[in-house]
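Reopening this one. Same input as before:
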Amino acid sequence: MAATAAAPLWARGPASYPPPDKELMAPVPGGRAYVRINGRVDGPRPPLVMIHGGPGGTHAGFLNALALADERAVILYDQLDSGRSDHPNNPANWTVERFTEEVDSVRRAVGVPRWHVLGQSWGGTVALEYGARRPPQLAALILASPLVSTRSWIADANALRAQLPSDVQATLRQCDPPAPITPACEKATDVFYANFLHRDPATAAMKDYSRLHGGAGFNPKLYQAMWGSSEFVATGTLKDYDGEPLLAKLDGPRTLFIDGQYDEARPTTLGGFAARVPGADFAVVPGAGHSIFSDRPEEALGILRPWLREQDRA
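Same output, byte for byte:
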């Protein structure tokens, strides 16, 4: 079944973002995670928690989803060693298992008995692992542009690389590990990102928020340790990750797969994963790259809002 978009909410996001109604440092395995909440966690609808990508990213990519706080609490947090959370920078913490355990630690700290869980990109990996456990506190699961398996991710990245100009392709091939990262590599990678990651530049509001509230921001050490230095070759601890068997453990009627039209996680691949989960919904955000909530927030939230309402009634 395919989810459909409702009327647009915002065009590229608001002029500014509301301050959190509540902030806390939640105890999680290995340290404390920064959490911000907008809306009432004890309201009539289950809250939505959103798990950011990376590894090593921050919650800032979800700011446009704060619009949903008019009808349910929206909970954003930075994973350990990212953003405004503690930074012990202990590689022993950098495991799929620990990041999955972190999710329920945040839930307990916030005091939520039941919630919807959305994970995007690497956060989709964490959400997949969490959802496959079928915790009773999980109302519904949204896998947004998720890393389901490294082999499928690399296959998608290489298929998309083949669509770029021939000179950019040649440069990127020369930059595959173990080759060193050069300015030419960074320039060619930026071309890939402009097509498939961020298709629109960050808004002034997003830049202002990141500057004033971003904390330590992105953690490249964590990213390189778990993934590597290239979009096209995984050399970190996730190089052999395979979450595809977990698809069979998901609660299909309560699962939504969603990605962008030009996403790094290609719709043809993600749609195939969704088809393996009986009863799951699948939606594509038109015009968006991987950063669906930044590129096309009105379309992304236009899909998510009615789908969550349906899950509230289920």
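So the earlier flakiness isn't reproducible anymore. For the record, The first helix runs from residue 96 to 110.
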